[in-house]
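The instructor's notes for this session suggest beginning with a concrete chain rather than abstract definitions. Hand out the sequence below and ask the class to guess, before any prediction is shown, which regions might be ordered.
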Amino acid sequence: MIENSWVSEFPASITVCDKSGIILEMNQRAKETFAEDGGEALIGTNVLDCHPEPARTILQSMLEGGTRNVYTIEKSGVKKLIYQAPWYHDGRYAGFVELSLPIPETMPHFDRDSPRK
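After discussion, reveal the predicted structure:
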């Protein structure tokens, strides 16, 4: 259970799984996003069972290697940044966190390395 209220009510989906793929935590937005798939009932199930190929193979590789996966999607007219990254406990790989952040179709980009004029 996510105890920090800011995480629970954060306006993006946050899902946490262990290194074998068992879903440990979901914030409220994730439960709502995945309601048709079971919502809160997904906690305790394996994330691999929720994904068809080729996503399943990508996730399996991430779980085994502790690697990161970042991409964008569009579903029901909403564009999202999907950021899946490993998390650690006491310095040891423990699983991964998926953030699903709604993003506008276009948005400003600032190059902080460019000299200012």
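Then share the key points. The chain has a mean pLDDT of 91. Strands lie at 13-18, 23-26, 69-75, 78-89, 92-103.
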